[in-house]
């Protein structure tokens, strides 16, 4: 029996490494792994740095382009703004020139319109002095009211134009409010009484810094409107002092002003659908003058109103110390002109004839002429001296009535009292007239005012 021989041994088996060598090998492998990781990290950082530098370079280029574009846009915008400013400046200058031109036109037109209006009023006054019937007197009164409305419209339009053009410069000074309100009460008290209204005035001893002419114009327009649009009750004008300021209220018990109309009422020719309760013609210009005058003075103007209950217009002014008292001028009251010798020079034929008729109706002797030479020929002689001179400022051919006044005074050796009439309301004309010691009367002439002034001058003379 054959038996299998045992398998031969495969060779000697690998001997396991000693423990110390295995640990050293593991440490070497770990070190190599760390070195490899560090190298990989360094490579990555290097790549990131190169990428960041490139990215920064690209960003810088992009920002530079954006800055250049924004700079170009800003430069273009600044050039456009400069052109707009130049256009606005040119438009402003053009508007100012147009305003000045409008004012000059209105001034000239007002002078030309007031001349025939002056003659018509003088003729009506002379007609009223004649013994005419009751019906004729009623017609005379209607015509006078119509002429007064035309005169008010012309003067108001001229005032608005001057305010817009900045030709009216306020002259602030201490003003006693009681004096201004007394004048307003005297002007509108009779009208309020005829309508059955109460007109109350409470002024106290308050003083404000303002231009007395503009302030009076503001209050007159406010009170005029209050009386016109109030049917029952009354109007109160009250001044109150508080914290260094003075508030003047014009309060009425009228119909009130709707919310929608409270800005519109200050525009020209706007009446807000309201009708005057007395049928009087309203021009719609009073509140426009009020706002412009208040702005020129720097006085705040406020409005409170309730429909069906009334309105309150408030003017806010700075308070000031009282002005030192001045002696009151003596006033002469006589009105008789009988026998007075009046030298009259007026280039407008209708006005000349109307004035001459008026003077003759007052029992005065009028020597009337349209120019200087005609008056010289008309006067009785060098020994004859007029008691008073009435001269128009603007005569034909550029002549001035003040030259005739100066000649008459020089011939007779003394300052003959003189009145200069004109439709020119400029400050230059007023200063020229005042400098010669003459009285100034604006056209249209109010006959009663002229008669009282003549009587006063003759009495003083």
CATH-assigned homologous superfamily of the domain at 173-318: Histidine kinase-like ATPase, C-terminal domain
Poorly predicted sequence stretches spanning 5 or more consecutive residues: 1-14, 328-335
Radius of gyration, in Å, reads 46 Å
Question: How far do the termini sit from each other?
Answer: 190 Å
Biggest sheet strand order reads 2-4-5-7-6
| Beta strand % | 15-25%
> Percent helix among the residues?
40-55%
Find the count of extended strands (DSSP E, 2+ residues): 12
Q: What is the number of helices?
A: 10
Keywords:
461 residues, Heat Shock Protein 90, Rossmann fold, five-stranded mixed β-sheet, 10 helices, 12 strands, 53% helix, disordered N terminus
Short description:
The protein is an alpha/beta fold and 461 residues long.
Polypeptide structure, described:
Among the domains are: 173-318, 2-Layer Sandwich (Heat Shock Protein 90), CATH 3.30.565.10; 341-460, 3-Layer(aba) Sandwich (Rossmann fold), CATH 3.40.50.2300. 53% of the residues lie in helices and 15% in strands. It has ten helices and twelve strands. It has a five-stranded mixed sheet with strand order 2-4-5-7-6, covered by helices on one side. A five-stranded parallel sheet has the order 9-8-10-11-12, with helices on both faces. Strands 1-3 form a two-stranded antiparallel ribbon. The protein is elongated and about 160 Å long. Mean pLDDT is 77; it is low at 1-14 and 328-335. Residues 341-458 form the Response regulatory domain.
